[in-house]
Each structure stands twice: as structure tokens, then as C-alpha cells.
Amino acid sequence: MTGGQIAGLIAAIAFLVLVVFIGVFLMKMVRTLGEVNQSVKTMTNDMDVIAKQTEDILASANTLLDDVNHKVATIDPVFQAAADLGTSVSDLNAATRDLTGKVKSTAKKTATTSVVTRVGESVFKAYRNRKNKV
Fold it and tell me: Translocase: is it a keyword of this entry (predicted)?
């Protein structure tokens, strides 16, 4: 065997080893891609189930929200009536305070007038009694 033949044999063996390693690598890659494909299918099925459940939950939430909005609209007049009642009570309190003030003022005037009237009547009686004696 000549040097060129030995070099060719070494190159052929190196090429054969390279082809075997590439073949093994590609076989492992095919197996891995198969597993990835299976995982993606499983995940896709799971995502479909999750999407359906999410859709059902959102539909229920929308129904519940509509029900809550309807009930809130129903009780809104109650709160408005309570607010109106509070305003009316406040106005009534203010009117009562005003009336109480007026009654108090009139009572003071009446009391003052009564004292003056009594003094005047006493003076008038005393004057009449004196005049009748004379």
C-alpha cells in the first residue's frame, strides 16, 4: 500500500465515522421532534379545553354582570328616595328651628307686654281707687 492509498483509506474511515455520527444525530433529532410534536398536540388539546372553559366562564360572568346591573338599577330608586327623605328631614329640621325661634321671640315679647300691661292695670286701679275716695 502506498501513502496515497493509506491517506485515502483514512479519509474514507473518517468520512464513514462522520456519516455514522450524523446518522445517529439525525435519528435522535427525529425522535426528539416526534416527542415535541406529541407534546405540541397534547398542549393544543389542553389549550382547546382551557379555551372552551374560559369561554364558558366568561359567558357566566357576563350573565352574572347583567343580573347585577339589573338589580342595581332596581335598587337605585330606593337610594334616591332615601336621599330625598334625608333632604326633606333636613328641611323639616330647619323649618322647625325657624318656627321655634319665632315662637321664642313672640313669647319674650308677650311676656314683656304682659308685665307692662299688669303694671299699667295696677297703676290704673290705684288711680281709680284714689279718685273714687276723693
Answer: no
